[in-house]
Amino acid sequence: MPVRSGKRTISIIGRVGIVSSAGVAGHKEGEGPLASYFDSVYSDDMLGQKSWEKAESRLQTNAAQEALRKAGLQPYDIDVIFAGDLLNQCISSTFGLRSLEIPYLGQYGACSTMAQTMLMAALFVDSGACNRAMAVTSSHFCSAERQFRLPIEYGGQRTPTAQWTVTGAGAAVIDDSGNGCIIKDVTIGKITDYKIKDANNMGAAMAPAAADTILNYMIDTNTKPYDYDLILTGDLGFIGSELLIKILQREGMDISMVHNDCGKMIFDRERQDVHGGGSGCGCCGSVFCSYIMQQLNSHKLKNILFVATGALMSPTSSQQGESIPGIAHLLHIVS
């Protein structure tokens, strides 16, 4: 059974592990530095579908099926699936996973959804509520642009702080067999709002939430940044990552030598026009479930913190002049 460690952190007592994972990506992501690590890269971002939204659903379908295949499992072997995305009512997850006929709990954590679904899966497994669970998320550049900003046909200019929503998906299978990378602790984030209203500066909106979660985790566990091989955030991008480091330095904590961010890793900023870096549920979903998991499985990484961040906004809240609250959820994972 999981137990609370400190104020915000929950320790996973059993040997709950990530037994398989899969990350898939679109053609722009396939032109970046992590291309060889993705399980699939699609040259057609429509994936043969009739709309961007249907294409994003297909990303989830393919990522989930690949994670199951790698684990040697069938959909009926999964007790519950936690999934979410950026679109209204999480339609990418609903329509992408309906054919699997797995009991389903929809999640919304914006770009933090990969961490949120994984921590929910880990807690369910460790509590005995289920034996095996899946965590899935996705995003698509064109479906996100249509919902949150402007139709891509409009050809609007992107500000220097804007990030590029990743076309991709990630899926992970989590059980209590003791196999794979072990989830040791999770920290559930709290809503953090610094009253930022610029929808083209997500990194600034989410950085305070990441700082809050990391700081509280370190206090709860009495550990330091250099106890870990990597503190991986997502998806702060270049601007948000700089802000995160500065915020924590003001609190007397320096993570600069062990920090990286999925939004910085997925694209080549020099060769690809992505401005502030990558974003979207599919950014940390595809990066973590491919590159990072391969580094863990090969023991090149042995002890990491995965801290996915999200901007809890909607088109309606932005149109009404609301600020952009942030959230960040953390998992401590060892190989």
How big a fraction of the residues is strand?
A: 15-25%
CATH superfamily of the largest domain: Stage V sporulation protein AD
Taking the alpha carbons of the first and last residues, their distance comes to: 21 Å
* Number of E-type strands: 15
CATH class of the largest domain: Alpha Beta
Outline? globular
Low-confidence stretches: none
Helix content: 25-40%
The fold-level CATH name of the largest domain is: Peroxisomal Thiolase, Chain A, domain 1
Mean pLDDT: 91
Give a quick account of the main beta sheet: strands, pairing sense, barrel closure. Answer: 13 strands, mixed
Q: What is the number of domains?
A: 2
Order of helices and strands: EEEEHEHEHEHEEEHEHEHEHEHE
Computed over alpha carbons, the radius of gyration is: 18 Å
Description:
The protein has 335 residues and is α/β, with parallel strands linked by helices. It folds into two domains: 3-175, 3-Layer(aba) Sandwich (Peroxisomal Thiolase, Chain A, domain 1), CATH 3.40.47.40; 181-334, Peroxisomal Thiolase, Chain A, domain 1. The protein is 33% helix and 23% strand. It is built from nine helices and 15 strands. It has helices spanning 52-71, 91-97, 113-127, 141-148, 202-221, 237-250, 262-265, 281-297, 315-319, and strands at residues 3-5, 9-11, 17-25, 40-41, 80-84, 104-106, 132-139, 164-165, 168-175, 181-187, 230-234, 259-261, 278-279, 303-311, 326-334. The strands form two sheets. Strands 1, 2, 3, 4, 5, 6, 7, 9, 10, 11, 12, 14 and 15 form a 13-stranded mixed sheet that branches. α6 (237-250) links the parallel β11 (230-234) and β12. α1 packs across α2 (91-97) and α5 (202-221) crosses α6. The protein is globular. The relative contact order is 0.20.
